Amino acid sequence: MTELEDILKAMEDEGITHESIMENQAIDDGWDLEQYRKLGEIRLNLQDKVRSFECLPVDEWPSFDIHWDLNPENFRFAFDGVSPIEYAKNYPDGFLLCWVLQSEFYGNLCHYSKRSPEELWELGFTHKLARVIAYCSEGHPLTPVVAKPHPNFANEVLLLGGNHRYAMINALKIKVMPLLIQHEDYDEMSKRLCSLSDSYQDIFNS
Prior knowledge:
Layout lengths: L2 H11 L4 H11 L4 H13 L1 H7 L30 H7 L5 E6 H7 L17 H12 L7 E5 L7 E5 L1 H9 L4 E6 L4 H7 L7 H5 L2
Parallel strand pairs: 2-4
Antiparallel strand pairs: 1-4, 2-3
Helix pairs in contact: 4-7, 7-8
């Protein structure tokens, strides 16, 4: 046996697996173990469906409604791969939940973050986009995207998290969408997005 094989054999004898290592790391990062396992199971169950969605035209997608996850405890999922501890450190005040006309958001979105429906599968990562579509098609709750005022371009907004989620939202022509922003950005975002409101109904009826 090589030295590496000896180490792996010793780990196996002690019941140490790749899965147990990942779960221990997740616990250290602040994850609830039950939630961590549940999300892993969802990803595993969606694998075949994700592959079937890659590069599929929008008019061939199954019909589904988006179920928004509006629980502040889950807003950290707006950032792929951010641990609970890292999120709490970087965003101690959390995010403010607002609503906005999706068409206005697209119109003011930073020019290098825009992806038209025609470019849906040409930009970004096809697997990540397909995973979002598959996830939503199964009725799982979707975390809103996060945006902030662009620091270098007046009137534009910048996506901080959710490029693939937003690509799907735009392709589906959603009328009103939730938007997460930092509390200190509210006034400036209100100037750049006239429809921005804390009330979904006010926008939907406008």
